[in-house]
Amino acid sequence: MSVLSVLTAAIAPGVALLAYFYLKDRYDTEPIHHVIKMFLFGVLLVFPVMVLQRALVHGLGDDPFVFSFIISAGLEEFLKWFLVYTIIYQHATFDEPYDGIVYAVAVSLGFATLENVFYAFLNSSSISSLLYRALLPVSGHAMFGVIMGYHLGRAKFTPERTKRHLLYSLAFPIFWHGLFDYILLTTKSYWVWFMIPLMVFLWMRSLWKVNRANSTSPLRVIHKEDQVKI
């Protein structure tokens, strides 16, 4: 495979998934430059994560549970959450619940895309191995982003439950990401029997969250009024 072919195959899944969730916004699509900015922040996040994870492995060891839930999922999801919360959560463009999903997915897929590029070149990957990564790690990061963004949206637009959903927006992605990694680390020969049901569940749950976030948008009333006027 040529360098360009490998690079394209490594980048394409993340970009395609981001486009899919971006276009799922029914009422007011986000400014594309903000989405690209968050995607690029996710790309840059890979470098400090690599350094911190190496240090944590030296300090905490490589026990599968500790690695999965703390060193991998805990660190990665916390830093993604921190980026979305500090940069975009209070921004004026975050004006409906679904926006949380768009921005959290953008950060998550930026992170997953550079990871995928590194994997492709460092492991001399074939198309089949990149397809496997598109269906599992890249897709998984997108699902964790949907979960995070859904609860950030709920936190912002249901003030009486803000603290609860802020906690959920961090805790749930860490749990599902940790479980994802733990299965891959501990079930070497029969992981597919656990991973396929997990991914089906995460996709179904994520699509429900997408529809739920859109259905609670305060902009849907304005959209309906505009349709009636037309």
Short description:
With 230 residues, this protein is mainly alpha-helical.
Uncertain stretches of 5 or more adjacent residues: 224-230
Q: Radius of gyration over alpha carbons?
A: 18 Å
User: Which secondary-structure class do the elements indicate?
Assistant: mainly alpha
Question: pLDDT average, as an integer?
Answer: 88
Query: Biggest sheet, in brief?
Result: none
How many beta strands in the DSSP annotation?
Answer: 0
Taken as a percent bin, the fraction of beta residues is under 5%
Helix content: over 70%
The run of helices and strands is HHHHHHHH
Global geometry: globular
Description:
With 230 residues, the protein is mostly helical. The protein has one domain (3-229). It contains eight helices and no strands. It has helices spanning 3-23, 32-60, 64-87, 98-122, 127-157, 162-186, 192-215, 219-229. Helix 2 (32-60) packs antiparallel against helix 3, helix 4 (98-122) runs antiparallel to helix 5 and helix 5 (127-157) packs parallel to helix 7 (192-215). The radius of gyration is 18 Å and the shape is globular. Its EC number is 3.4.-.-. It comes from Paenibacillus piri. GO terms for molecular function: metallopeptidase activity.
List descriptors.
transmembrane helix; PrsW; mainly alpha; cell membrane; 230 residues; membrane; disordered C terminus
Topology:
Elements lengths: L2 H21 L8 H29 L3 H24 L10 H25 L4 H31 L4 H25 L5 H24 L3 H11 L1
Helix pairs in contact: 1-4, 1-5, 2-3, 2-4, 3-4, 3-6, 4-5, 5-6, 5-7
